[in-house]
Structures are given as C-alpha cells and as structure tokens.
Amino acid sequence: MKISSIKSTSSGGTSAASGSSTGFGSGSGASRSFNLRNLSKLMLPPLGSSLSQSTSDSDKRVVSPLDSRYRCWETFMVILVAYSAWVYPFEVAFMDARPKGGLEVADMVVDIFFAVDIVLTFFVAYIDSRTQLLVRDRRRITFRYLSTFFIMDVASTIPYQGIAYLVNGEVREGMVYSLLGLLRLWRLRKVKQFFTRLEKDIRFSYFWVRCARLIAVTLFLVHCAGCLYYLLADRYPDRDKTWIGAVIPNFRQESLWIRYISSIYWSITTMTTVGYGDLHAQNNLEMIFNIFYMLFNLGLTAYLIGNMTNLVVEGTRRTMEFRNSIRAASNFVCRNHLPPRLQQQILAYMCLKFRAESLNQQQLMDQLPKSICKSICEHLFLPVVKEVYLFKGISREAQLLLVTKTKPEYIPPKEDVIVQNEAADDVYVVVSGEVEIIYFNGEREEVMGKLGTMDIFGEVSALSDRPQTFTFRTRTLSQLLRLKQATLREVMQSKPDDSALIVRNFLKHQ
Amino acid sequence: MKISSIKSTSSGGTSAASGSSTGFGSGSGASRSFNLRNLSKLMLPPLGSSLSQSTSDSDKRVVSPLDSRYRCWETFMVILVAYSAWVYPFEVAFMDARPKGGLEVADMVVDIFFAVDIVLTFFVAYIDSRTQLLVRDRRRITFRYLSTFFIMDVASTIPYQGIAYLVNGEVREGMVYSLLGLLRLWRLRKVKQFFTRLEKDIRFSYFWVRCARLIAVTLFLVHCAGCLYYLLADRYPDRDKTWIGAVIPNFRQESLWIRYISSIYWSITTMTTVGYGDLHAQNNLEMIFNIFYMLFNLGLTAYLIGNMTNLVVEGTRRTMEFRNSIRAASNFVCRNHLPPRLQQQILAYMCLKFRAESLNQQQLMDQLPKSICKSICEHLFLPVVKEVYLFKGISREAQLLLVTKTKPEYIPPKEDVIVQNEAADDVYVVVSGEVEIIYFNGEREEVMGKLGTMDIFGEVSALSDRPQTFTFRTRTLSQLLRLKQATLREVMQSKPDDSALIVRNFLKHQ
Amino acid sequence: MKISSIKSTSSGGTSAASGSSTGFGSGSGASRSFNLRNLSKLMLPPLGSSLSQSTSDSDKRVVSPLDSRYRCWETFMVILVAYSAWVYPFEVAFMDARPKGGLEVADMVVDIFFAVDIVLTFFVAYIDSRTQLLVRDRRRITFRYLSTFFIMDVASTIPYQGIAYLVNGEVREGMVYSLLGLLRLWRLRKVKQFFTRLEKDIRFSYFWVRCARLIAVTLFLVHCAGCLYYLLADRYPDRDKTWIGAVIPNFRQESLWIRYISSIYWSITTMTTVGYGDLHAQNNLEMIFNIFYMLFNLGLTAYLIGNMTNLVVEGTRRTMEFRNSIRAASNFVCRNHLPPRLQQQILAYMCLKFRAESLNQQQLMDQLPKSICKSICEHLFLPVVKEVYLFKGISREAQLLLVTKTKPEYIPPKEDVIVQNEAADDVYVVVSGEVEIIYFNGEREEVMGKLGTMDIFGEVSALSDRPQTFTFRTRTLSQLLRLKQATLREVMQSKPDDSALIVRNFLKHQ
Amino acid sequence: MKISSIKSTSSGGTSAASGSSTGFGSGSGASRSFNLRNLSKLMLPPLGSSLSQSTSDSDKRVVSPLDSRYRCWETFMVILVAYSAWVYPFEVAFMDARPKGGLEVADMVVDIFFAVDIVLTFFVAYIDSRTQLLVRDRRRITFRYLSTFFIMDVASTIPYQGIAYLVNGEVREGMVYSLLGLLRLWRLRKVKQFFTRLEKDIRFSYFWVRCARLIAVTLFLVHCAGCLYYLLADRYPDRDKTWIGAVIPNFRQESLWIRYISSIYWSITTMTTVGYGDLHAQNNLEMIFNIFYMLFNLGLTAYLIGNMTNLVVEGTRRTMEFRNSIRAASNFVCRNHLPPRLQQQILAYMCLKFRAESLNQQQLMDQLPKSICKSICEHLFLPVVKEVYLFKGISREAQLLLVTKTKPEYIPPKEDVIVQNEAADDVYVVVSGEVEIIYFNGEREEVMGKLGTMDIFGEVSALSDRPQTFTFRTRTLSQLLRLKQATLREVMQSKPDDSALIVRNFLKHQ
Asked: Model-level pTM?
C-alpha cells in the first residue's frame, strides 16, 4: 500500500512540476511544455526561474528576450543589418553616396525599422550578468540601455543626409556623410550576437553554422574591399593610371554592373591569392591599399583554415576513436591467440559500443549531482526491479537502495554471462533481451529454459554460496542490471525485515 | 576428475560456439570462419544474429547486403558511377550533349547496368535503423525502397534523349536534356557511401582512404569547373572576348583534346591559387563564374588542409607520446641523480612500453564487460596457474578466482623483482622469460638457480611472513603474473579446502 | 574561549602574512599589496622570497628586474629596437647606408639609449637559473654580463661609421659598414623576450599577443625582403633588366616613397602568394633571391596557419565542450524517455555547469597540496558550518574535520534533494539559495517551510536512521555542502565530547 | 649490523650491475657507461641484452647496427644518397644523361661506395622483428638480405652506361639508360630511415628534425619538377612554343646555370602557388605536366601545413596549460574573495608547479612497475628517513615500508603546513628547505625554532593524538615527505619490535 501511495506521490510530483515548469522555461509563458526546441531559450536563464514569480508584478509591456516573437524580430533585424552593411559601401563607392530610386526608399524603410528597434529595446527585459536573473523592471532596463548602447544605436540610425537636406535645402555629396555612414557598421554587432547564439544551439549543426559565419565575414570583407578599391580608382586624378582604367579606358561610362563585378572579381582574386594579374595596382595609392589588403587576407585565410581544421578534427573524432578501439582490440586478439569465439565476442562488443551510444551513459551520470542520478535510476530501473520475484513486496527504500547500486551493462549475443561450476558471483536482472539457461551434462549442452525481461539469474548461487549450476548465455543483445553479491548482502544486513522477505521469496520460488 | 570434465566442457562449448558462429557473421552463410576480413561485415549487424534463425523462412532470392558477391557488385557500381559523373559534364560542354561513337555505346551500357541495379535493390535485405536487425522480408524491402530512393534512382537512369528520339524521330540538342542529365549526379551518393564504409574498415589505412576521398572530390570538382567554364566560352556570342578565345583565336576549330586540356589547366591553376594569368576571365559572365569558383575553392582548400592536419596529427601522435615519455623519464633521472643501474631500468622500461604494445592491454580490458574479461584471463593465464606447484589440485573455482585477480606485468631484463631481506610482499608467477635466484652472502652475489615458465616465487615469504631470503632478478624480458599477498590470503580464507591443499603443496615443496 | 582565541590567531596570522608579503612579491619593495597586476612579476621569482632578507645588505643601486620602472624602461627599449630593426635595412637599401637629416639624428639618439642600457645592465639583478634566486651581488652581475651578452651588445651599438669618420676624416660608403650594421639585428632578442613574457601574462589575451607577435615577425620580414630586393636591382649593372627597371625605366630618379612602396608591394605580393606578375624577376640573381624567399615564405605561411589553427582550436574549445555535453545529455534523455521534469533538471544542470565555472573548482582543489586546500575550505565553509545549530559549540578541530570532508554542490532550482520516505542518507548544509520543506500527505504536496543559509537538513534521518519524513526541494539555485552520513559518524566516534554536544544540540532542536 | 651489511649489499649490487651493463647497451662493447647519448641505441634493442652473452661465439666480423662507427658510415651514406638523388635528374635533363668532367668521376666514386655498402651489409647484424633480438649469425644475415633488399640494392648500383660502353665500345645516349637510372631513387629509403631514427632520438629537437625532413622532401621535389619541366621543353620540336623558349628564344645556347635557375624558379613559383605568370605552359604537354604538378603540390602544401600545425600545437601546449591553470586559479581566488595570503599561496603554488617540473614526477612513477618504483623511493628517500631520529635503528624492512608509502610534496615559502590547535594529522619529514616552528601565545606569534633536512614534525600530535601545539610554516621552498597517520600506525602494528623502538626514540627525544 505504501508503495502505491508513494507511486501516486511521484506522479503527483511530476504533474506539479510540469505545471510549475511554465515558469521555468521563460517568463513570458509562451513555452508550456519543455522540449528541445526550447533548449536554446533555457540555456540563457537557467537560474531565472526564481524571479518568474515576481513577473506578475512587473510591467506587462516588458517583453522577455526569450519570447518567440521577439526572436523572430531579432532574426528579421539581422537580415536588415546584413542589407544595410552591404548597401552602404556600395552606395559610397558607386553612387557617390547618393542612392537613387529603389535603393533610396529601401534605405529609408530600413532606417525606420531600426528606429522602431531602438524604441522596442526599452521594453525588453535583460539578464543581469552578475546575478544571472532576468530583469523586467522598466527603470533598470532604461538605465542600462541609456548607459550602454543607446547613443551608438541612435547615431547609427540618424539619416544625416536627410537632416542636412531639411536644414540646407539641398543634397550635398560629401566625405562627411560617407564617414558618418560608417557608424552604420556598428549594427553588425547584432549579426555577431546572432551567430554566437546559433553556435550554442544544438538544433543546428555546428559545422554549418560556423561555415555560414565564416562565409558571411568573408563575403562582407570582399565586398568592402572591392568597393573601396573602386573608390580609389574613381577619385584618382589620372584615370588611365588606375587598376580598372588600364583595362577599361573609359570605365566611368561603363554600366554599374560591369564596374561592380570587376571590383568584386579583383577583390576575390586577391583574397584567394589566385592573383591572375589581369587587374593589378597601377599607382602608389593602390599599392598601399593592396599591401594592407593582402596582409589582412593572410590573417583571414589562416583564420579560415584554422577554423576548418578545427571542424574537421571534431567531425572525424568519432570515426578515429572507433578505428583506434577496433585496431587495439584486434591486435590484442591476434597477439594473444584467443579462441575464435572469444575473438568474436570482443570485436562484437567493441563494435556495439560505438553503435549504441547508450553504453556511454555512465560518463554522463558521473557528471550529474547525486540526487538527479538517483531519480534517473529510479525512473529507469525501479519498474523492472520491483517486478523481480526476489524483491517483490520489499520496502521501497530497500528497492531504491538496490536500484541505485546496480550497474547497467549491454551484453552482445551468444555470450556466457555466468559459466556452470564457477564460483558464486554477481546477480543479474534482465532488462531487455533474452538469456538461455544451459546445462552441460558432461557430453553436450542442453538448453533448459529461457529468461526474459524482469527475470533474475545468478541469485541461487549468490544467496547459497554454491557454484553455479547452469551456464547463462545471451541469445540476443541483452541489457542486464548487474548487482554485486557484496552489495546485495549489505542491503540485506541493513534491512532485516526486507532480508527475511527476500529469503522467503527465494525459498518459495525454488 | 572434476577439472578434466570441465576442461572438456570448455572445449565443447567452444566448438559449439564456432559452429553457431556461422549464423553470427551474416545470414548468407558465405563466411564460415570468423576473421578480420569479415570485420567490416560484422560491423554492420552485430545485433542481427538473433534473426539469422528466421532466415530459412524468408525468400531465398533475398541477398544480404554483407554478401561478398554483392559487395563486389557495389564496388563495380561505384566505378560506373565515377565514369558516369566524369562523362556527363564532358559531353554537355564539349559535345553539345550529343556523345558520338564509343562514348554513346558506353553510356548506354552504363545505363543498363544502373537499371539492373534498381531491379536488384528490390532483392537486397537492409538493416533497420531502429532495431539494428537485418530485414529480409520482400514486402518491407519493396516498400522501403519505393518510399525512399526509388524515384530518384529511376529518374537518374531514364535515357531522356533516347525516348525523345523514339517519340519525335529526331535527336534534338537542348538545354532541357542537359539539365535532366544533372539528375545523374544523384548517383554520387553511392560513392559517398563507399568511402564512408572504407573509412571504418581497419583493413585499409585511414590516411590513404581519406586522401583518396579528398583527391576524388577535388578531381571531380576541377573537371566540372573546367567543363562549365568552357561551356561559358563556347556559348558566348563574341568568341574573341572569352578566356580561351583571347589566347586561341579560333578555338572551336582546335582538337577536342587541346580544348579539354586547356579547360582543366585553367581550372586547376585557379583551384590551387597558382593563377599564372595566361588564361583569365575576359567578360562579365566569366568573372561572375570565377568569383563563385574562387570562393568555393577557398573553402575546399581550407577543408583539404584541415583534413591533412588531422591526419598528420593522428599519424605522429605515437612518436610524440614516445618522445614526451622518454624526455620526462630522462629529466626525472637526471634531476634526481639516480644510480646508473636504475637509470637503465627506467629508460629501458619506457622504451619497452612503446615497443611492446601488449603492455597497454589493461586499458582495453577495462572497457570490456566483466564476463568477457573473465574469459580472457581464463584463456590466457589459467593454463599457467594450473601448473604452478602451489595450486596443483585445487578446485577450478579457486583457480579462477586467483586468475582473475592477478595482474600481468612485463619486466625488462636485469631487474630485481624481489630483493633479499625485504619484507614479505606479492607473489609472482613466471609466464615467460627467465628469472635468476640470487643469494648475497655478505660479500658477493651467487646465482642459486633459475626459474622459468610456470614457476612461482615470493611465495615462501608471503605465506610464512618472513623477509625474502633471495633476490629474484630477471635475466630476459619476463612476463610475470603479480598476485597480491592480501588477495592470496582472501582466497585461502574463503576456500578452506583449497587452502589446506595449498599449504600441503607448499610444505611438500620446501 | 578557545575558539575565539584561535580566531584572533588566525587574523593575526593573516596580518603578519600580509606584512611579510612585501618581501614575497619582489625585492624592490615596489609592490606592497598582492594583486593580479603583480602576477607577471611573481611568476618570475616565486622562490626568490627567502633572499629578500639579505636584500638590505646588497648594493642599493642594484635594480630588480621586476621593478615597475625597469619594466617601463624595457618596454621603451623594445620600441627603440623595433625602430632600429626597421631603419637599418631601409638605410642600406635606399640611402646607400648614409642616412640624412632626421634619420641620422634619430639613429644617434637610439644608439645613445642603447649605450645607457648596456651600462644599466650592470646594475640589474638577475635570476640564477639553477637556484631560481635573485642575485643582487654587483660582482656576480658584472661577471655574468661580461661572460654572456656584453660583447655582442657593445658590438651592436658602436657607431662604426662615426668612428671611421673620426679616424679618416671622411664618410665612406662601403659594404663593410653595411655588414657591421647587421650586428644591430642582435638587439631583436629583446623583442623576442618581450613577447615571450607577454604570452605568459594572463592579463593580456593570448590570442592577441600571439597575433601581434606573428604580425610583427611578418612585417619585419616583408620589410627586409623588400629592401634587399631593391638593393639587388639598384646594384645590378643593366638597370633595365631588373624587376623594377622593367616597369619604371628610370627608377633611380623616382622619389624614395615610390621606390619603397613598390618594393614592399612586391614583397607582400610574393609573401602572400598572390603573385600578380606585374613585378617579377628579370635576371638570374633576382631569380635566386626569389627562390629562397618563396621557399622561406612557404614555411612562414605554414607557421602562421599552424599558429592560427592552434588559437582557433583553443578559442572554440569551450563552446565545443558545451555542445557535446548538451548533446549527450539530450540524447540520453530522449533515448530513455525520461519524464519531462527529469529532462528539465538534467539539461538545466548541464547548462548551469558551463555557465557557473565555480562548479569546476574541484579540479583546481585536486592540484593544490593538502595544507592549502584545508585553508581554503576553512575560509569558505567554516563560517557557515560553525553557525549550523547542530555543530554549535563543538571544538574547532571537529568543525575543521567536518569542513574538510564536505563536498560543495550546486543544485539547479526545483530539484528534489531528498525525497520523502527514502532511506536515510547524506546531510546537507545550505550555503546559499533557498530550500523548501515539502510534505506529501498522500494526496497533494504541502510546503511546510523554507530553509536558508546555515540551515541543515537530512540530519534527522541520518542521526536516527529512519526514512526521510519530508521532501527537500530547492527553490532557487542553491549551493549545498554535502556531508556523507558515514563521515559524520566517523567524526562523532573519534570525538566523544563533540559527539555528545551534537546529540544534545540535536535533541534540543527537535 | 644488519643495516650496514645490507647497505654494502646494495652498493655491491650496484657495482655488479654497472659492470654487467656493458652487455646491455650494445653487443659491440663500444659504450661502457650508460648515458643519454646511448639512448637512441638502447631504444632499438632493449630486449637484446640476453643475447649479448652468446656474442662471443658468433663471428667477430659481424658489426652491430648500433656500433658508433657503423652509425657514422650510415650517416655518410645518407649524404651520398642525397648527392645521388640530386645529381641524377640534373644529368638527365641538362646533360642528356652524359655527365662530364668532375660529375662523372664523382658519380663513379659514389657508386663504388654503394658497392662497398652492399658488401658491408652482409656483415651487419639485424634485429629480428618477431623476437626483438639481435641476430649475429652470418648465414641468417645473408639469407635475410638476399631475400629482401639485395636485388634492388644491386640494381640501383650497376653502372649501366659503363657496361654498355665496355660491351659496345661506344657511349650511347638513350631513354633506356635514363629509365634505368630511376632505380637509383630506390636508395632514398635510406634517407627516410635516417630521419625516422632522428625523430625518435630525444637528443634532437623534434621541431627541427621534422622541419629538416619536410624541407628536404620539398627541395627534392622542386628539383625533380624543375628538371623534368626543362626536359619537356628541351625535347619539344617547336622550341619557341615552350615555356622557356617563349621568354629566352635560343635557350639551348644559354649557359647551364641560367637554364637550371630558370627551371627551379618556375618550379618553386608554382609549388608555392605564387604563380607570377612570367613563365607558363605554352603547349599541351606542358599543361598536362602542370596539371599533375599543381595537384600534387596541393597535397604537399596541405601536408606541410598539417605538419607545421602539429608542431606549433605541441610547442605551445605548455604555455597554454600554464595560462589555463593560472587563469582558473585567479578566477577561483577572485570569485571566492579569498584572503590575500591564501591568494598568494595558491598562485605561487601554481607558478611553482610549472617551473619545477619535478612536481609532476608522480605521473611518471605511476607508469613504472612496482619493483622499479620501490627502487626509486629507496634511492631518493631512504637516506633521509634513515636519519630521522624517530626511525633510527629500526629494521630496514620497516624503513622500506615507510619510504614506499610517503608522498613527496613541494610547498612554496611562507605557508602553514600544520596549524596550531588543529587535530592530529599527517607526519612530515623535511627533505630540503627550512620550516619554522611558530607558537601563538594569544597575542602574537613567536618563532620557537627552525627545522632543516632530516627533521620530522607533526609526530608528537600523530603519536599522542593530541591537537598540534605549534604552527609549522615553511621559510623557503621546501620538499617534504608526507606520511599519513594511518600508514604510520599500520606499519607500527605489523612490526611490533620496530614499534617499540619508535616509541622509545620518541620518548627519549621529548
């Protein structure tokens, strides 16, 4: 009765917990059930939950940074920033910083969105770096934003040329406006944050996120270099003595498309160190620009290769480990002239180990605190151990003690777990798979029976301390719980009541 | 008597096992004896053995994917795919997608083989990814194939031009056919699978398999880029303003061979970033193609270097470890001014450790489940321990207990294992090599005797708890089994009968 | 009373130590309080402290190499060396080794500073490599300097041309002077030392220090190669058949600026393997130079990439580990169909582990010697344990014993640390965070109370050996000290007086 | 008496060992004392020593491969092989395979040396790969050589042209002779063996040996490619349509020097992917050669970079580890607000750990077998422990037991090892350094005394089980032997006589 009551407790606890988990994931209440999709959110404020209770007091208009809709907005802003970063150098170089037609309208729309984002930021909660808690207080949010990024954000959004036009009544081309435009590159930090977040999100492949980031950086730099190099040629007094003028004499009359493609072509030819030489520096200024660009590319190329190496190493690690394990095992087997049956078992086990990752679960368990481990064992093995005839009816505490001390093992097929006439040893509970009972009568082996889930074996020998009377051999891949003889005895000594029950169960069964 | 009977049991068990192992390797019965050649097969279905019994029921015409003949067929298909992937871009670029003579026939033959492969796939068992079992049921095979790769496989095999010819009665050159030909590249997944399998097969060097894979990828891409770049020049209206036309004015009249080599030459000059500049982009379209090709090459080069770094690191790991170990040992030795004899021993042991890999076997044993370890110890050391005079006649259980608790050690030559007058300590059994018994009479050492395989030493001291009366020094490299004094005592206490026998053996021997 | 007296002892010890720490940091007495700024100093003579007492005897004019002012002087010298290394090849190549105007004066000033540095070195203490002690004895300093670097230092500082002018009365251009100038490059070892020191200083990012070093090396080599290549062209008899003469016919009449930029442009085009081909070798001598330069660059590029790879691997290591951990945990959770609540706990814990690095402190503690560990535990946990009601009034020794045996654990919010009706187990002391006492009455959970800092729980069960009567669940992230039941009993057995006190405390509290 | 007698035993054993060590290093008796110089020799036959006794029987004319003079000969042969590998492609390409003057003579001399080497090989012992023993039997050496490398060695040495001249009476230029010359490249395996041996020899820096190997491979390939490319141009019918003919119209009339330098210049320009474009392929044959050369270079460059990365990673590993340790420690220290004195101790200890590598000796000891460890402890610590007053006169066995159970620890200066009023704990023996005895009388600390080498402290408390009466603080860096209280008691219990003696010593001393 005790057991059943506690059972319901446990389920009650679970439902209570799943109810309270709404506050755990995020303060916005958007994610009701916990799943992997929300992991990237959880990742940010695992300790923020205690604050979720005070959420109700705070401003309803404050948005959590983990809110799905805000995440969408952020992704949209990243796209706008990418557009903005691409269009600015292009306009400066090829349009004398005076965009026309569609581009001018697009620029204005983007600027409006950025202005909206600045306003929105005053309503987005943040995670305090010291306490790791979500701050939803309007005043603290405002203070923090004003004292950090606000000025730069505003400066990068003001349409200086528009203001100048309003003030002066005319559009003026000028170095000043181009330089003020540089402030827009400040927005790129949003892209960096975006990629940093994606890299930590296990839903996306690290390899491809990292590649995307590197490609984005490379493309942006190639674009900037191309635009700047064209600008140098465009402004140079003697237009025939420029890199593009030497090949296309009247390049300013050529279409925008041809000029842009030529710039990018040169830029990427240099970046990848191909250097055909069809377009090359003609005057001192271009040489100086080239020197810095090539030096910079040396670093960038090294950085790209370094990253790729890192990704390749990570990607092939598992195959390497598998090969090394198998090689070590087969060397061992050959060197020691083990019998074929043992060879098979060893190699099959090593293969199995890399296929079934669950065999590595011990390593994970070691990292978790004891109370979580206990819960896991209870969830995974208690249902089985409870149904084993030997432990039927014993107190829940004793069952828990036994469960937390068992060790799960995966055994490949056709392997002897216990050999007839061996000394008494560990007790095994079958979790899954099938085990054959084999008796060797001096001449040949007879299969005496078969064991399945929730059966136990080795207990006769362990309790009576006699040699094993049967061989137990796995028929299929089996998951067994191993319980050391000593542990079983310890538990029985510490719980006299349960011990009597176990012995009674044992005798009744024989 | 008991021992001999069990001995025959053990051999009986082995023969039974080797008989049943035919079903373990693969269901087709092709591989009767287990050896390393079959490891790559074993790797796939280590858990499939339980199903091999139901094999007899299933369709005889179903082929196992692990069957040797099917493996040959697969390798042959990989060669055809390689041919097909090479010839398609070539035909499109240089022959207006209308192959002539030998090539046309070859293409048809290859297509027929692919059609055969599609039919064959309906008869090939597969490994269910969830249960890891071999599925040999015709209906499930058919359903799985139809619902996954069938459509693409068929689409990549249909001879569109042939059908068009049958329908229209004439061969038409056209973009459509070229694009439909792209479907043939779908077949490349077979090559990928092939290399992935080779990489996991320890019969082949990982270094060379990986290199071959990278070279294959590189060559294919170089070939594709070359063909595509030629296609651009070929279709460009103004033929003098193309990369090849600028160098060879009437390039369309040149031989196929010269045009192909020029394309590949340009392709590889760009890929390797040599970029001589003798062939370079002349118009906007070529520049755009170049831009993408160079960007792509940047990634590919980084990937190649990353892979090579990975292989080099793996390849030199052992030498590195050896050097670090020896350096640490020699630093230690120098710093502490150890006597020359001890210096020799330490350095010889460290060298030995890296030569004789068997010294690292402990690490492997730790990974295996206990029941396999016990079998290994039994196989390797029981024959020796059984013959040691001290343990003659004791029960098999006691012998097994002792065997599983010994620790094998390799000792370099000329080393003192036990020193005269030292306190009683561990007991050693000689597995191989020779050990000298040395007595120091106060002035000089006298060799009192020699011990060989199956001899034991240190037992006098361990059992009687007196200081050692002799020094035991290895003459050659010796493999010894170390048995802790405490373990010996434990075993003796737990088995009173065997303990009496051991003591009797001991007294008789003295 | 005993406790308070010892408490004051402890504080006394601390003040005494902080007083004596002046001698520990450096002998010069410049750094009175220990902080991270001084770590780079400490790094050098951790063992030099014992000598600081004899400092008073030694020459007051001897400067410690760790003195802040001397460090400034060294950094200043590094800047001068950098200037000197840049200007020497420039002068030889472009000015026939006869600097004019500002450069000549600057060279003289720099030489004077180097002369001052040579004199100063006689007054700088050094660290004996054998004893790791700071040697402040003037005679030993003098002897060491004279026998090692003195001659080279002097040789690299003598103004040979100036002396020749004084002797011969005229300035002569000559190969000899240029070659003697090579001696100045000897000074570069100062730059190497500077970077090596920076790399070990954790105040600076390893990534940027390493990058700076590599950039410095690259720039210096590019500069040297450019100058040398110009020199080859300048001295070549047929000036039209030189790399620069082929492009700029009368290059000697061009401005210095154009010639220098062209040299550097060529140098860097070759170094980065861009190789446009606009400037290339024209005669045999230039080809030979090119061959060696390109070979050298191959090595340098590989070295740069190798370094970058190393830095990237190091930089992304933590993210990789985080991803692998989380992935393993989420695989484990999915495979075993754990209940959602348990899933949350496990993933939250793994996230927490990587956010809160303090969870890894165990690893650091393991490296420290036992006496330091004891001090740390005493400092961190004694104030808490002392205030726990159960241990109030017990002897300091017993408290210390308990403290050194507790294990700190971080538990994420909403986790059951102890579950109602479980067997008696460990005792927990709350260091920070909040823990709820929950009672499940068969139907629903009731919160019975809340525990905070310095509260203890689990002790009822542990001392009376009955099942737990309540569930203890964390409300917020909590830091708990876990004390094993067995440890508590051991301590109580070894200290009967304290044991009685503990029992009394316990009973009084119930 | 017993001790002294054993002492002489020990020294006797050492002298006997050093006498017998002559047979251990190598059979030739060339290296009498063991030192690091001989390590590279030892590395090869650590197990060969047992055979050295049978050396006297074997042929005196058989040379050991480890003999110093044979090593010199081998190095000399490597130089000859290098010359031979350089000169062969050169002669084929630039001299129509007909060397003149000095080169012809040099070739003949080299061939004679190779012939001598072939004869010599019949007299060089070899190491059997299976038994790892040195085989000195003439017949087995002959059989092995004849059945493996003999034919190739002879084939690579025969002067085919000389024989043809003797037979035909005239020198004929011919493809056949050039191809037969290819056999000479077989000798390169000697170079490979040479470098492989150097890489394992810790006397040489791995970085530089590896670099030298890579440079050698690169140079050889550059030379071969250059020669082969020239050969292609030289044999091409239309000499103006060759890579060199396009630049130097009558290149065959140019001096050898100019042609060779041009070839190497082209070769290295392509290899390093600089690709200026001044020399580039002009006909189809050259393009094909170029394609393969560039593909090959891609692999070679990746291999070079991979190796360099590996070396860089290895080279900076220690600095990285140091930085990570220090950073972890300083983070820990800051986070936990430890008092300044404790901060100092922790950081000083971490620094110390990386300076004094001896602190890592534990790791080495763990790898060695128990018997060697015991010898090391005996050598290092027994002289100290024997002189400690507490253990004076106790039996050698007891001393050995104590010694093998102590743990050496390095303690930085100014640290409290034992604190007054703490519970009884471990016993420490001072090996080096100084320790102060400090008494705190409630107000201030008084230095009561100083301990030096061979003093023991903590024993009063440990034996009488009272709290410590003094604080023991290190004055200088001290090496202490830590002996656990429990271990001391165990030893005393197992040796009642020695226990009585220890207690008597203790009481006498108080």
From this structure: 0.82
